[in-house]
Design brief:
The protein is an alpha/beta fold. About 35% of the residues lie in helices and about 10% in strands. The termini are far apart.
Length: about 150
C-alpha cells in the first residue's frame, strides 16, 4: 500500500448532520482546530468522496427545500467523484436498486462502492485524482438540470 500520509496532507474533511448543517465540532462540542503541518491541513483538493447512508438517503435526496435553497444531500452526491453506499445490510436489494438509480440520475460519472459498517478499501478513498475542470462543469450542469426538473428554480 502506498504511503497514505501524503494523501491526508491534501485532504479536506467535512461532515454534515442529519439536518444538513455543517459539522465542524469535535468531541464535547468544541471546535476542531487544524494546525499548519498537521495531517488535516488542507493544501490541495484531490477529489470528493461522499458516504451515503443507504437506510436514510432517499428521505434526504427527495426532501423538498424552499426556493433558492439547495438540497445538500443532492449537492453532495452531484459533486462526488466517488460514492460509498454504507449500511447496505440495513436495506433490501430492491431499496438498494432504487437508491442506485436515483444516485446515478444525479451523478452518472461517480464510481460507486458498497460497504457495511463503513468498511471500504482505502485505495478507493485516497488518491482520487478527481479534479478536472471539464468534469466539474458537466457535474454542475447536471446538478442544475436536476434541480430545474424538480421545480426548484
Amino acid at each position: 500500500m502506498p504511503d497514505s500520509s501524503r494523501f491526508f496532507n491534501g485532504g479536506k474533511f467535512e461532515s454534515t448532520t442529519k439536518d444538513g448543517q455543517a459539522n465542524n465540532e469535535g468531541e464535547g462540542g468544541k471546535k476542531r482546530e487544524v494546525k499548519p503541518g498537521s495531517l488535516l491541513t488542507p493544501s490541495s483538493a484531490d477529489g470528493v468522496v461522499t458516504l451515503v447512508d443507504s437506510k436514510h438517503a432517499m428521505q434526504h435526496l427527495n426532501e423538498v427545500k424552499p426556493r433558492f435553497v439547495v438540497n445538500e444531500a443532492v449537492e453532495q452526491v452531484a459533486y462526488a467523484n466517488r460514492i460509498i453506499f454504507n449500511k447496505i445490510d440495513l436495506v433490501g436489494e430492491a431499496e438498494l436498486e432504487v437508491l442506485t438509480k436515483k444516485i446515478k440520475h444525479i451523478n452518472g460519472i461517480a464510481q460507486i462502492k458498497l460497504a457495511k459498517f463503513g468498511s471500504v478499501d482505502m485505495d478507493f478513498v485516497l488518491g482520487v485524482g478527481g479534479y478536472d475542470l471539464e468534469s466539474e462543469k458537466k457535474i454542475m450542469l447536471s446538478t442544475i438540470f436536476h434541480e430545474i426538473q424538480r421545480g426548484c428554480c
